[in-house]
């Protein structure tokens, strides 16, 4: 695996994933103008001696770009740098030709739904959005119309005049989202925008993102829910320990994930028997008895097929199974796999 | 969810009718002030401000109801000295000082504590405009409240005990001029202290310590040599009060600075502090970590 040309120039020594050319890279090949891209040029941010992000070079084109990485990888730092909430220690950032140092220019084009789950005291959803639109400089009637449209887009019209403090986390998330899209920006930056939403709301919001992206908007979204990234993204940027380790189109990542063996722990009374039988099947990559000898770790590349075989083996040998659970079916495991050259055995 | 909205349209912000930057900044400043004034007067934090501003009115009402057996209170001509003591010692040096500290330090620090400042930083408004909007809202709140304190405490002291003499004193004598002078000093105090505490609230995570140090500096002003006296707000304010009080046997005596120097000096000082605050806020980052 090799880094793409636009990723960090100072990556960790482990080789990152190779993905098909991203939307950004393709756009770059077509020589888009400076004003049509979101650009990070050699951007670093240090919090004292602690690294936030280091020597990031990115070009982001229209569509949905997901920033993916474990906690502390630098996703929020990148977003805060892009929106001027943080200042880079070195390097330059440009959002469609505007600098984050000039909020009066950049926020005419950009909306940011941050992770800060707080609101001015006593605010209603409508009052909250209206107030910040007034600070934009909109007139009263236009403010009302834009607020209505934004609340309608996130299905919050019915609760518009209730106090935000009484909302659930998901509703607050939707209010923040409405506030960030209310002025119809060209660029939308969303930090974990699906947090706290129920499955139906998630699907609706993802549809909204997709629609905005299809209309030509730039959406930069951070997430650690990999299947959601998979569902909605055009391209992904993988971050690890403050470095961009890879970027590319999302199906490249998906292919990598499909090849990544899933580890499953089966707690049962006869793990040796189970291990012997499961190894007879081609899906099993690795088997290891648990230290307490009451369980078995299995690695498989095709979990669906594996579970069918497992059911059969359990029935045939009358095994007493206490539990079956994926051990590392989370993003960290996938990152470990993607960012190390030996397939996650680091 | 309605997904029929035209999301691909031109950014509406670009269509906002903006006659000029000044017109936009004025609208933005007014929008900020509208909310901030509401917060200054109606939020839970305003309760302490009302307590501070109302304290002398309550104390002087008590004093008027139960006058102490002192010569000053029994002699109308001594009341101006009594009020000068109350104004200089209690209202100006303590209540206006701490009232301004409370209001202006919370303009930004309060929003950092509430984790809501980023919303202001995420709209297309120059941060200097935000600073000015918040500062003006703080000024309006403190000037209104402490003007009532200044006016009310003086009228209570005079009119409760000596209504007819006081009416003559204020309408025909020196009372009216003194009252206006005290009001002017109160307004200047809010302007000067407001700017100082605004920048203290911006720069310091815990502004209480620098606030107390400032209080100490202002309080020991009478002991300072003439040059150092001029590095304070209280020196210029004291120069403007209509009745000068003795500052005690250890005070280093200097001539009061004339009004034509004091007032511009205070305004210039305020301008410099606000300029420094605007430089700071342009570079300000928000992470809320540790706040």
Overall geometry of chain B: globular
Query: What is the count of helical runs of chain A?
Result: 12
Mean of all residue-level pLDDT scores of chain A? 80
Low-pLDDT stretches of chain B: 1-19
Assembly status: heterodimer
Tell me what the CATH architecture of the largest domain in chain A is.
3-Layer(aba) Sandwich
Helix content of chain B: over 70%
Give the C-alpha Rg of chain A.
23 Å
What report would you give on this structure?
The complex is a heterodimer of chains A (346) and B (291). Helix content of chain A is 36%, strand content 25%. Chain A contains twelve helices and 13 strands. Chain A has helices spanning 23-29, 75-82, 103-106, 125-136, 140-153, 169-181, 199-214, 226-232, 250-259, 271-278, 303-317, 331-339; strands at 38-47, 50-60, 63-68, 90-95, 110-113, 187-191, 218-223, 235-240, 243-249, 262-268, 284-289, 295-300, 321-326. In chain A, helix 7 (199-214) links the parallel strand 6 and strand 7. The radius of gyration of chain A is 23 Å and the shape is elongated. Chain B has 291 residues and is mainly α. Helix content of chain B is 72%, strand content 0%. Chain B is globular, with a radius of gyration of 22 Å. Chains A and B meet through helix 3, helix 4, helix 5, helix 6 and helix 7 of A and helix 1 and helix 5 of B.
């Amino acid at each position: 695996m090799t880094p793409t040309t636009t990723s960090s120039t100072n990556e960790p020594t482990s080789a990152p994933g190779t993905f098909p050319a991203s939307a950004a890279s393709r756009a770059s090949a077509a020589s888009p103008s400076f004003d049509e891209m979101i650009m990070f040029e050699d951007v670093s941010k240090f919090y004292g001696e602690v690294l936030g992000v280091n020597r990031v070079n990115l070009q982001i084109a229209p569509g949905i770009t997901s920033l993916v990485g474990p906690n502390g990888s630098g996703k929020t730092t990148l977003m805060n740098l892009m929106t001027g909430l943080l200042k880079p220690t070195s390097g330059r950032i440009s959002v469609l030709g505007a600098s984050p140092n000039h909020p009066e220019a950049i926020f005419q084009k950009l909306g940011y739904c941050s992770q800060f789950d707080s609101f001015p005291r006593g605010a209603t959803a409508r009052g909250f959005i209206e107030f910040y639109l007034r600070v934009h400089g909109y007139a009263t009637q236009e403010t009302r119309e834009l607020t209505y449209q934004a609340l309608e887009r996130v299905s919050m019209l019915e609760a518009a005049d209730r106090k935000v403090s009484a909302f659930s986390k998901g509703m607050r998330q939707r209010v923040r989202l409405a506030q960030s899209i209310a002025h119809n920006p060209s660029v939308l930056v969303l930090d974990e925008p699906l947090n706290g939403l129920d499955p139906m709301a998630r699907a609706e919001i993802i549809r909204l993102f997709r629609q905005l992206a299809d209309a030509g908007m730039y959406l930069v979204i951070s997430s650690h829910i990999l299947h959601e990234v998979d569902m909605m993204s055009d391209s992904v940027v993988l971050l690890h320990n403050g470095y961009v380790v890879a970027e590319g189109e999302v199906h490249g990542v998906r292919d990598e994930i499909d090849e990544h063996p899933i580890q499953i722990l089966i707690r049962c009374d006869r793990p040796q028997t189970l291990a012997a039988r499961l190894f007879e099947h081609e899906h099993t990559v690795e088997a290891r008895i648990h230290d307490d000898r009451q369980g078995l770790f299995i690695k498989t590349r095709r979990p669906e097929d594996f579970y069918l075989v497992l059911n059969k083996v359990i029935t045939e040998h009358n095994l007493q199974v206490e539990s079956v659970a994926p051990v590392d079916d989370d993003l960290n495991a996938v990152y470990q796999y993607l960012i190390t050259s030996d397939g996650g055995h680091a | 969810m309605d997904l029929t909205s035209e999301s691909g349209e031109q950014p509406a912000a670009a269509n906002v009718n903006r006659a000029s930057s000044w017109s936009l900044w004025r609208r933005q400043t007014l929008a900020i002030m509208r909310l901030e004034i509401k917060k200054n007067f109606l939020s839970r934090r305003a309760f302490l401000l009302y307590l501070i501003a109302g304290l002398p009115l309550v104390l002087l009402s008590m004093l008027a109801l139960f006058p102490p057996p002192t010569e000053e209170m029994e002699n109308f001509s001594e009341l101006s000295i009594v009020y000068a003591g109350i104004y200089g010692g209690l209202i100006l040096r303590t209540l206006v000082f701490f009232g301004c500290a409370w209001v202006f330090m919370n303009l930004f620090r309060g929003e950092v504590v509430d984790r809501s400042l980023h919303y202001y930083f995420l709209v297309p408004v120059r941060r200097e405009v935000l600073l000015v909007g918040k500062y003006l809202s703080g000024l309006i709140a403190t000037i209104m409240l402490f003007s009532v304190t200044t006016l009310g405490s003086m009228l209570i002291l005079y009119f409760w005990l000596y209504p007819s003499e006081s009416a003559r004193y204020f309408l025909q004598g020196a009372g009216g001029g003194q009252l206006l002078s005290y009001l002017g000093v109160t307004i200047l105090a809010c302007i000067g202290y407001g700017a100082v505490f605004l920048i203290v609230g911006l720069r310091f995570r815990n502004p209480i310590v620098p606030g107390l140090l400032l209080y100490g500096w202002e309080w020991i002003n009478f002991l300072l040599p003439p040059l150092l006296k001029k590095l304070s707000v209280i020196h210029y304010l004291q120069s403007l009060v209509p009745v000068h009080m003795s500052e005690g046997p250890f005070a280093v005596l200097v001539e009061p600075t004339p009004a034509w120097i004091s007032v511009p000096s205070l305004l210039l000082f305020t301008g410099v502090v606000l300029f420094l605050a605007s430089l700071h806020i342009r570079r300000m980052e928000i992470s809320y970590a540790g706040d």
